[in-house]
Predict the 3D structure of the following.
Amino acid sequence: MKILCGYNVNIDSVYRISGTELSELLESFESAEILDKIENPPGRIESVSDFVAGLAYCMKNGCGAEWLVFQRSVFEFLKERYFEKSLVRMGGNAGIMANALSEIGASLVVPNVAVPSKAQLSLFSGKNMYFPNNVLPSSGPESPGGGNTAEAAFPDQDPIHFVFDFSGGDSFSLYGTRVTVPRENRFIATCDQLNFRLFTSPAFEAYALRHAGEIDGALISGFHLLLETYPDGSSYEKLLDNALARLRAWKGANEKLRIHLEFGHFGSREIARTVFLRFAGISYSMGMNEDELAVFHDLHGVPPEGIRRMEAESVGKAASGLASGPGLRKLLVHTREFVLSAVAVDPGRVEAPALLQEAEKELEALEFGVRCAGVYAATGRLDGREFVENKSEKLEESVFGGEQLSRFLDAFGGQAFRRGAFALYGGYMLCMLPTLLSKSPVTTVGLGDTLTSGTFLRRLELDVQV
């Protein structure tokens, strides 16, 4: 399978932070300022106190978030304090998905790289990866048709995302109050000006259009980095116009091209909604986690509380309801405890054995994605399918996910099959299975992207085999 990966590729600086370290950080700031920002999260980083408050908010609630950094002084603070002590690795949805696809059997992977520096390129897998002849972006307009302008804030810097992993059960002092972290997760402080604008390398854009007829699939991501307004006064709307035109050109050259759009933590609910509604028509599938699904409660009508608690009934109904509005072919929801997909069912395939065949393909694809994500969490790498198969045998199935699978069967009158189950609901086939968990994960970042990559690739292979 030949697959394009765009748009956000960056460097992740991953640091596991302890409650003790956070306690010490908090003491450097006035309690009133930090507590106010925890109560009313700014959602962006204009100062070091914004960063500290965002980290404390996530550790207090056991939630994940990604906030964009707008001040170079904060970038310098983070780099000086944490970079040398961090694990430096590939970052960005597109970069992580490209590496995963490369390691698990894609025949060709072509990523978009905004800043193709030596440091950035060294983080890519060497297997079946092709880089069009990139040229470093300037501070002026991109080539005709790109529609992006490079930011001047950090023109000489690699895009670095500072990822702070934290552990469940750890604790910290919040100005005299002892807080216990409810579960492991991560907070990301993102210093990345080009990807804020969905910057597309002219070489990648030219290659994709020229070879679209040979490409099987495209994994597209990075929209969550968009801003409502930019320093030059421009809006994200123009950037979405350009991205949509690009995808339409690819589809025009190859109507069989399968496009998957992966969501992320959007700072703006309006941008998230706009991306979903505008790109659902051209996307074969979309992917998101439970927090991102809950954001769309006004579209699917399911209360967000049950979705965030990862209740299978709420997630299943929300996935079906969200997908059915614009007629999306498939919606993939990946949570820590289970994965669930809602796949549109053709009227002629709602009866056995056609439905069973469809369920078998979807659940096999989901199983492969789950194994890839579990192994990546446990080892921090993917070294081919044999490696994934062998290592996944040592992982344990989520107990909570197993409990929710039973509730899924009851709620939807489903049928157990393979390691999971499927059911018909609202014109969609819902497929679900528990995830595989590691007791001591090496990483919690990129698991959704890895699961998506494995599922997407395996489903492409199974459909081609028909």
